[in-house]
Amino acid sequence: xNKVTIVGATTWGITLAFNVANSKNTxxxxxxxxxxxxxxxxxxxESKRFLPGFIFPDNIQITDDALDSLKxxxxxxxxxxxxxxxxxxxxxxxxxxxxxxxxSATKGIEIPSMKRMSEIVxxxxxxxxxxxxxxxxxxxxxxxIMSGKPxxxxxxxxxxxxxxxxxxxxxxxxxxxxxxxxxTGVELAGxxxxxxxxxxxxxxxxRLGDNAKAAYITRGVAEITRLGISMGANPLTFSGLxxxxxxxxxxxxxxxxxHSFGEQLSTGKSIDTIILDMDxxxxxxxxxxxxxxxxxxLGVNLPIIQTISEILFESLDPVIGIQMxxxxxxxxxx
Length: 334
Description:
The chain folds into 2 domains: 2-181, Rossmann fold; 188-326, N-(1-d-carboxylethyl)-l-norvaline Dehydrogenase, domain 2 (Orthogonal Bundle), CATH 1.10.1040.10. The protein is built from 16 helices and 8 strands. It has helices at residues 11-21, 35-44, 66-70, 85-93, 117-124, 129-132, 142-146, 160-170, 183-205, 210-230, 241-252, 257-266, 271-276, 283-298, 303-313, 318-326, and strands spanning 2-7, 26-31, 60-63, 75-78, 101-104, 134-137, 151-157, 175-180. An 8-stranded mixed sheet has the order 3-2-1-4-5-6-7-8, sandwiched between helices. Helix 9 packs antiparallel against helix 10 (210-230) and helix 15 (303-313) runs antiparallel to helix 16 (318-326).
């Protein structure tokens, strides 16, 4: 029987665990934070906090034993918030086995290092872990996948062998997986789209209309593509599943927490109040801080990202921020 370990009992981590558990002859372990979380999930046989009503199948085991969960495990998937990625990686570092393939299902940029998740892997895990690792990203709203609705994603890796392995592991009748070698692009597209989702939520919350939203998203895609190119990404990746695909899902879906955050922000609620009322992490907040900082350091023009940063961290009124964008000097589109 094949064994796969999921690090993190998050909404996305559990969703991936269910997906992998659908494969024949596959045992899945979910490595949780501590004994308290272990006992709660074992007792409830579901995640009442994130995914109530979805009972763990028999081939999903909950554990807090990092040594056992990594022993003889060919694929390890990490689905934790970006600001907790390093901490979780450090936890499994001691037990990492040469030849295992790490899959990052995390979308974000670490603060204050400004590092992508693959760069943290390169820093912490030994041997060929970085060259063999994969990144998973795409328009993947967890509750839709758990409900059996069709979805698709992309796996990026410098190793074609690793990409194909993970593709075959995750591919299901309702979950189609593509591959690419653009690790940087997939990571950046999957992270930066959360910034656009916050802004789309603001546009919707202010009821600015479909024209405004379409223009905002289009110019936002141009910005994140510019930033991606400056960081070594393939521009075409931003037109793929981790880019446009994920942007459409997160900028329009009521299931998107970054979009919901933006909508609430437009009503005058404080960041702290909104986050306190949400169960899941709003990755776009810290990603905005990181992207604005990186853009300035590289000299990349990012007016939309910079404006959202000022709304989030400098108390700029969203209405004024939008008008500032409209009042910028005329320029060419391309």
